[in-house]
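FORM 7B - TANDEM STRUCTURE REPORT

SECTION 1: FIRST PROTEIN
SEQUENCE AND TOKENS:
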Amino acid sequence: MNTNRFRSIEQLIEGVATSDGAGVKLTRVLTGKLQQRLDPFLMLDAFGSDVPDEYIAGFPDHPHRGFETVTYMLAGKMRHRDNAGHEGLLGNGDVQWMTAGRGLIHSEMPEQEHGTMEGFQLWLNLPASRKMSSPWYQDIPSGNIPEYLTPAGVTVRVIAGSSNNIAGAIIRPDTEPVYLDVHLPAGTSFEAEIPVTHNAFLYVYRGAVTVGDTLVEARRMAILSNTGDGVSIQCTENSRLILLAGKPLKEPIVQYGPFVMNTQEEIHQALDDYRNGRFI
């Protein structure tokens, strides 16, 4: 990697506190106004609480069309069920990768009454040619997620794409996403390649890190510039972050709640199909 080509931080983002589902409290880190800049990523929610009332009601049945959802559980237990007959239980460190495609109705409900529930849900767009594809679903147990340890002692979990020649648990076409969970002990640094074609950002969920001359504190997202083929990260305290990169689709994005299509007409069709029982 050319060390002169490290990406800098273009913008720091503080998430917006909100609630979703049946009242689950969360932080919306990537919002609609950033969809064009961070194409193909549509949304990133960070959730984390040890107060059961803030998560216990979960996410009852709701529809999706036109994109993929990626749920990464850091802690807790969440049960997924959908109207295609899929069911799975996510636990500590597990990932669920779901392609809604032409339409799916699912629920995500906690299976715990106390303790911490923490993790992320990412929405990843699909190209126009695949928005009406068949729904697809995969649970990835924590033990099946490849990880490696750098000489400096940094642990890297490769959820999607590849990092330092380690292939991730998921490889996806079109958007070619890279999704890393990086654990940095105090005083260490980490370098990762980022394809020059990709938009990229990182989100710090423990500690704080420095990219170039910019400090990124916990619960902040850093949008990386598009100049460079990598990123260099340093820290002075134990820190953890997720690093994401994806190849932009450069297609129109029209969203109405849980439906993301390319035209308003397709949104009207999605609503009609959902209301008339044509999802699955």
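SECTION 2: SECOND PROTEIN
SEQUENCE AND TOKENS:
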Amino acid sequence: MVAVIGAFQFVEAAADANDKPLGTYLSRVVVPLAEPSASAFGASGEVKLAFAMPAEEISYPLDVHGDPSALHYAWVRNGDTALVTAAQPLTGDKVSVPAKAGFYRLALLKSGQQRQVEGLTLAVLVPFEEKERGMLRGYRIGTYLAERVRGKTPPPEGFLEIEPVDVDIPITRHLKVGDFLNHDQPGVWPSYAAVNPKLLDKLELVIAEIARWHGANAVANIEIDVHSGFRAPAHNRTIRRAARDSQHQYGDAADVAIDANGDGRITAIDSRMVGLAVEIVELKHPDLVGGLGIYTSGHTSTNYVHIDVRGRRARWRGGG
């Protein structure tokens, strides 16, 4: 009894010291912890960027660990805490995205408190229709073949708008936004890039396949070097031997180098091993079928693999 009384007095003293009654602590409302559902990360489970057009409604499935009643949501700029949209009730898995292009995090709100959802960033795209005479908000894009010739591959629906602070945002487990920057206009910001989520899934599945050959824990140690991601049409025309309607222009392709055998070097053997991994991934995931170009030479810098998701099988070899 003495111990119980002493404990109660200690709590009362603590409450008095903070000038708050004990009931304040017992009735405090806490925003429940929540995380994106597993389905939000693509077939690979490793895609960390969701894509949307301005002001559209998208599916954003959440696993809420706690009482979901009276929950609202709003959006904050990536790396910030200030709300940039009005709070809306969270009902079901549908959310309305911001009207302005950029990178955002979902914030859950309850009784004046805020908790950001970790693990998935929203990228609101700049619509293709904003491009005028080959320029997008002062950035040179060029002209897509479909803009001049009917029946060709449609241009991308929209582009990521990238500022210097955005280049290190994770786009997958092994890739970041900066890996897909167009390389012909250094120092011009914002920069713009088209990226196909299917390509992100395919690249991560290729890495996972290579890791499987080395053991379950190897995936964390595998690095991928993106030689070329997005290439705007204006830039693509300056690339020697580049296809006129290259998949890079649509965000469907990446030229990558991976130390697939783990010997610390990038050689022709690595390119062939990556090619094998691509073949296996396409067998397991027919919806990700596309092009595979294996480039090998005696120079480390020219051993790489072209991977794309054009929707039909294409194979070739190149040298440097």
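SECTION 3: OBSERVATIONS ON SECOND PROTEIN
The two ends are 85 Å apart (CA to CA).
The longest helix spans residues 197-214.

SECTION 4: SIGNATURE
Preparer initials: ____
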